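Worked example 3 (structure in, sequence out).
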């Protein structure tokens, strides 16, 4: 077997086999079919990458089709958000399609099914219909309306379409087999009455097709060759094929439904219903809250399209559902941002340091490398002065030999600057250290080439010159849930696991090169993590979101536990 063949996932093997037997390469067409009832999440990203990836691999068109058959939950806002997400991920669709474009054709086909004795109008309540479905081991019971005449069914169905009945008064059901071992084949509902305006058809229709009836027929209309679904649709395949049997002609390509496993992400939920709960109950600020697993939330947090595509490629396509550790997603964004993000200095928990032997009022501008991973990134100037901020945790009065930061009598190097030595410190009335007095070695400037500058000290600290520092609101985001699988507990609600420390807002002190940072700019705060400028930012009030820490701190916590 060739290396290329070995590297194919099982969906690609299916396509390859079909090309050998049933399809021509020019007949290949794929689709990504979201329902516009919420924002796309990281699980959808895998499906997007799969379908559009197949399009790129086989130079085949990919449709973006909105399965908009439920006006009660669907909105134009979601349509626009989905289009933005797919484009942002770097993919282009061939045709923008809507299931609502096919309402008339679907209705016409439904009429043919009624005429052929394959569909009937049921006037029972939804509860009665559900009760008659039976169980996996017991057959269902036939509806008392199952044997209505074709003429009566046609008249009722037309009345449903014309708005003559209230919601729930009737449904149209396919007449298949109430004793089928597949409960989905027990006369499934094809249409329901819903007097609600649709985001595209407004009030033109008051009956709406169900997903199972719409899905395969839409694929057929668009001549989609491979309809790729997640595993929960495997039992639906038999129904998908039955509905196609009723309409296909020999001169047109017949779509195939095939299934792949859903990839769930740890420490979050990816159910649109549950994500909507988080929004509606105010746990998060909206669908694009940076703690959300939505693509818009990840984008706002600072994730890159490349990191999400690489993540999807790494987890691949499988035949079994499983939970992927969120740390793998974090790894991919760290790896990409490490290559592209400029390094800057920011202090988030400031401690004042006074360099007593540095001349008052003096300032100098030091050379600082923008990104050691990218030679073309160049360098910038950062100001240095007598008074600087360092992080509180970077100083201790006393410390053991394993503490390589600043301690009384100890030395550290300031990044891009000088070696300093802590001589004394000042405390407030509560015993908290509020200032450290240091001396510096004026011959130890980084890059100067002097003997003193080459002297090795074990610790290097980031810092910011106090007179030059600009302030910003810094939002420190963490995992939204404390449990790896918050929606897997029968005895508890997933809301019980919301992490109360998923967001901390602090004032950061930043080097002045960030003064003109634009929304979406990504940087590494040295020794702190990767951050990006939030959409709430203004020229007077900068806001930075933490995308991810430099290291996986959760892994350390979980090891301790």
């Amino acid at each position: 077997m060739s290396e290329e063949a070995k590297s194919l996932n099982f969906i690609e093997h299916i396509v390859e086999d079909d090309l050998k037997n049933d399809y021509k390469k020019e007949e290949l067409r794929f689709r990504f079919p979201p329902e516009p009832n919420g924002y796309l999440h990281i699980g959808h990203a895998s499906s997007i990458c799969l379908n559009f990836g197949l399009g790129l691999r086989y130079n085949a068109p990919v449709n973006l089709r909105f399965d908009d058959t439920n006006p009660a939950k669907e909105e134009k806002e979601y349509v626009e958000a989905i289009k933005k997400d797919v484009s942002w991920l770097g993919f282009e669709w061939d045709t923008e399609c809507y299931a609502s474009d096919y309402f008339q054709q679907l209705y016409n086909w439904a009429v043919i099914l009624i005429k052929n004795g394959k569909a009937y109008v049921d006037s029972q309540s939804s509860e009665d219909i559900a009760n008659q479905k039976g169980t996996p081991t017991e057959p269902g019971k036939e509806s008392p309306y199952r044997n209505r005449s074709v003429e009566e069914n046609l008249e009722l169905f037309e009345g449903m379409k014309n708005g003559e009945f209230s919601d729930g008064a009737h449904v149209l059901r396919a007449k298949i087999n109430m004793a089928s071992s597949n409960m989905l084949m027990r006369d499934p509902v094809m249409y329901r009455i819903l007097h609600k305006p649709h985001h595209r058809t407004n009030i033109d229709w008051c009956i709406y097709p169900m997903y199972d009836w719409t899905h395969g027929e839409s694929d057929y209309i668009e001549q989609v060759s491979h309809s790729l679904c997640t595993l929960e649709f495997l039992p639906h395949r038999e129904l998908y094929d039955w509905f196609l049997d009723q309409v296909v002609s020999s001169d047109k390509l017949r779509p195939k439904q095939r299934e792949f496993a859903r990839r769930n992400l740890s420490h979050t939920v990816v159910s649109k219903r549950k994500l909507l709960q988080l929004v509606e109950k105010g746990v998060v600020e909206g669908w694009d809250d940076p703690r959300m697993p939505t693509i818009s939330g990840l984008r706002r947090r600072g994730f890159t399209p490349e990191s999400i595509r690489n993540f999807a490629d790494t987890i691949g396509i499988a035949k079994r559902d499983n939970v992927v550790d969120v740390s793998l997603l974090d790894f991919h964004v760290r790896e990409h941002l490490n290559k592209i993000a400029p390094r800057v200095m920011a202090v988030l928990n400031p401690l004042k340091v006074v360099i007593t032997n540095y001349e008052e009022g003096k300032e100098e501008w030091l050379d600082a490398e923008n990104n050691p991973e990218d030679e073309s990134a160049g360098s910038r100037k950062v100001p240095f002065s007598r008074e600087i901020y360092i992080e509180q945790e970077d100083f201790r009065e006393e410390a053991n030999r394993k503490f390589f930061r600043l301690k009384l009598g100890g030395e550290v190097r300031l990044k891009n600057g000088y070696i300093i030595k802590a001589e004394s410190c000042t405390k407030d009335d509560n015993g908290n250290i509020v200032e450290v007095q240091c001396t510096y070695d004026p011959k130890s400037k980084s890059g100067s080439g002097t003997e003193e500058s080459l002297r090795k000290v074990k610790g290097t600290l980031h810092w910011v010159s106090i007179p030059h520092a600009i302030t910003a609101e810094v939002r420190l985001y963490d995992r939204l849930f404390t449990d790896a699988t918050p929606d897997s507990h029968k005895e508890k609600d997933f809301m019980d696991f919301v992490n109360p420390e998923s967001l901390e807002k602090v004032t950061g002190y930043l080097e002045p090169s960030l003064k003109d940072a634009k929304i979406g700019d990504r940087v590494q705060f040295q020794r702190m993590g990767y951050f990006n400028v939030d959409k709430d930012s203004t020229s007077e009030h900068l806001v930075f979101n933490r995308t991810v820490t430099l290291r996986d701190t959760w892994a350390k916590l979980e090891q301790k536990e």
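Notes: The CA atoms of residues 228 and 406 lie 57 Å apart. The chain has 14 helices and 29 strands.
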